[in-house]
Design brief:
about 25% strand, three-stranded mixed β-sheet, alpha/beta, 6 helices, globular, about 190 residues
Length: about 190
């Protein structure tokens, strides 16, 4: 794979740790250059992450995660430079959707390869790009997905769904499924 194939990942404080770290590492391992950005931050600065776990409570538990170093400057992003967009979940999407530039970025990928996990579909709904689509998300985001005109895909926590170039999944246990589907949407072929 060419080193100049770039993907963009949107981040913010309290992004889910596994949902930023694992896709960043996996896609980088495949040869993609992944630019991870956060509003009001530059390359080298960090975002706090949170580890969300499923331990039998009515919702996930939350623990401190790692600090994740951003790889690019948010203010210099040109969406035309990127093949696809990744939106990890956690608590970051709930406030990132209030940023007008974040919404512009998401809209720019409406008809391009785009993956959103867990609470990431909150950004898709806020951008108004999922009407008529089949979308998975963390179950607590179902009302937002449906209010945005999408059909909520009620799938296992380990599964993912692809609708055109949009790949969505309910949470980090679906990494093997959504990453495989997203790589296919990106046009890559992996063989062993």
């Amino acid at each position: 794979m060419a080193d100049d194939v770039k993907l963009l990942m949107l981040a913010g404080d309290y992004v889910e740790d596994y949902e930023i770290m694992v896709p960043y590492q996996a896609l980088s391992m495949l040869g993609y250059k992944v630019d991870v950005v956060c509003p009001d931050k530059k390359a080298g600065q960090t975002v706090h992450t949170a580890i969300h776990d499923f331990e039998g409570a009515q919702t996930y538990s939350e623990k401190p995660g790692h600090n994740f170093a951003l790889t690019a400057d948010f203010d210099s992003i040109d969406t035309d430079d990127y093949l696809g967009l990744i939106i990890p979940g956690g608590r970051a999407p709930e406030y990132l959707r209030l940023n007008a530039r974040v919404i512009e970025i998401v809209k720019a990928f409406a008809d391009r390869p785009l993956a959103a996990v867990c609470h990431g579909p909150q950004l898709l709904a806020a951008a108004g790009i999922i009407k008529g689509r089949r979308v998975s998300a963390y179950p607590a985001c179902r009302p937002e997905v449906e209010l945005a005109g999408a059909t909520y895909a009620d799938i296992a926590i380990t599964d993912a769904v692809t609708d055109g170039e949009l790949v969505t999944a309910p949470a980090w246990p679906a990494h093997p499924a959504w990453l495989a589907q997203f790589v296919k949407v990106l046009g890559a072929e992996i063989s062993i």
